[in-house]
Amino acid sequence: MYRLYFLIKTWILKQRLKYDCHRLSWGLCGVGFALAGFGVWSLVYSALIQNALYTIQYWFYSDWRPTFEFDREKFRYHFAFGFRLTLSALLNVLFNNIYSIVIGKRFAETTLGYYNRAESLKNLPINNVSTALNKVTYPLFAKFSDDDEKLRNAYRQVLKLVIFIVAPLICIMMIAAEPIIGLLLGEKWLPVVPYFQILALGALFNRYTTTI
């Protein structure tokens, strides 16, 4: 319940293009506790401080306050919408992991390790771009929530931007796969190169809708 409170506040502020600035304080607290000799408890204390800073910050920057009222109509509306999103996310997780399950059943462990490493490298530019864009596109789409035509046009523009950024990055990584993997992972991971190049080639023709 405590975390649910400031999650609602977070999305309200994101709709208004306002973002939190507590992470620096949280990092400094973690380092401070570690230097003071608290050991692994530094992570616990810094996480508690992070949540406290969340709550204090969002209490002052957002005018939304929780109430004890239960609205059946709103529950039905949000449940119907959230149920579809949850089902879609579950199917997406199943689809993304089915390859690892099949490879792990039919091939050696090293083959599965090479595949998983190649998959994570392939997703690196996609995930970084999507993380940056999600913070901007969410409030943008929220403004057009009542206008389907504007929302559709905005979505097309963002999708074009994603492809324009991600596709060249994947091409560069695919061409220079050997030196990149040798630099990032070391010479022992060079057998990952052909796996990565095949997955990167497939990513060029993959859908990017899940990134935004």
List the helices and strands and how they pair.
Blueprint lengths: L1 H14 L7 H13 L5 H21 L10 H35 L2 H35 L4 H28 L1 H8 L7 H13 L8
Helix pairs in contact: 1-3, 2-3, 5-6, 5-8, 6-8
Task: Name some characteristics of this structure.
single chain; 212 residues; mainly alpha; 8 helices; 79% helix; 0% strand; extended
Write the element-wise H/E pattern from the N-terminal end onward: HHHHHHHH
Helix % is over 70%
Shape: extended
Radius of gyration: 22 Å
Give the integer mean of the pLDDT values. Answer: 77
Q: Would you report the number of β strands?
A: 0
Description of the molecule:
This protein has 212 residues and is mainly α. 79% of the residues lie in helices and 0% in strands. It contains 8 helices and no strands. Helix 1 crosses helix 3 and helix 5 runs parallel beside helix 8. The longest helix has 35 residues. The chain starts with a helix and ends in an 8-residue tail after the last helix. The model has no long low-confidence stretch (mean pLDDT 77).
Question: Can you describe this structure in just a few lines?
Answer:
The chain has 212 residues and is mainly alpha-helical. The protein has 8 helices and no strands.
